[in-house]
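Sanity check. The docking grid for C2E depends on where the pocket ends up, so I'm generating a full predicted complex first rather than guessing from homology. Inputs follow.
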Amino acid sequence: EQAIAKGRRWALHDEEAARAIGQKQNLLVELEQAIEFGNIWTVYQPKWNLREDRLEGAEALVRWEHPERGIISPEIFIPILEKAGRIDELTLNVLKNALDDLSIWSARQSGLSCSVNISAQLLGNDAFIEKAIAMVGAVNTGDGHVIFEVTETAALADLQRSILALKRIREAGISVSIDDYGTGQSTMSYLQRLPIDEIKIDQSFVKTMIADDSNRLMVKSTIELAKALNLKVVAEGVESQPCLDMLSGLGCDVGQGWHISKPIPSEVFERSWLKAAATTNLRMLRWSG
Ligand code: C2E
Ligand code: MG
Ligand code: MG
Ligand code: MG
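Predicted complex below; grid placement will be based on this.
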């Protein structure tokens, strides 16, 4: 009897697994079509300079609206593309959008930066790196205004290879940021060896830092570490004014999060954040946005 029960459970499990795999294959086909037909677009989340109280730039985040299922999170479809070895195409699309938009922004307000997320495996893809560098080189936004965000686990997986790729990227005038910092197993010695410009403290620490002592300590010590290593430090997941104030007090350079702005379409970014940012304060921008 037990054996039968167990057998049934396995059968069920297999069925579910098969369905999940089938769904993923469907999604992949649909994604490839969406990329081909341009049904993928890019939104921007403003980054706020906490020291100088001004707009710093934005992070480009990819969006996909499935015809039946609605908006699907990049946390679901990015890994599917990565596993299928098809993340290069999507990333070049996002980079193209970001560079087009950044060109408009820099013409209207100089000094803004735009960050693009680069998957782990792309650091090992020389053809991709060269294409990306050529694209950035073709627009004139000034050194350091295009930022590639790489997760720390990505950079640490194959340290030697990552160091070479990151060096090449920085030589081309592109800045490098370590994304989701604190979720992997970075240590100071690793961080020192990576040719990078910026650390982004993961939102899981930032969101909870007001109430949670150990997460606050994590944020505080990461800011100190960044200062010691001469790196810019960005906090993501800033969800409230008290959190923003605390980060400013701790000497954090830049904040990003829902309290400042949710990710928005480029038209909204241009209308509500450009130019106005040079003359108004964050509180006013938040109301008008
Ligand atoms: P990420 O690069 O760490 O981006 C930050 C994520 O946090 C974004 O989610 C953003 O919408 C969300 N977020 C921003 N502020 C807040 C906040 O105050 N509170 C909370 N709870 N969340 C906040 P999103 O857009 O869903 O992207 C998720 C992840 O997908 C990104 O994490 C990134 O790893 C990946 N991703 C997004 N676009 C791309 C892309 O073009 N290429 C690659 N390779 N990955 C991407
Ligand atoms: Mg990012
Ligand atoms: Mg992040
Ligand atoms: Mg993340």
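Relevant for the grid: The chain has a mean pLDDT of 89.
Also worth noting: Strands lie at 40-49, 54-66, 70-72, 113-117, 146-151, 175-181, 198-201, 232-236, 254-256, 264-265.
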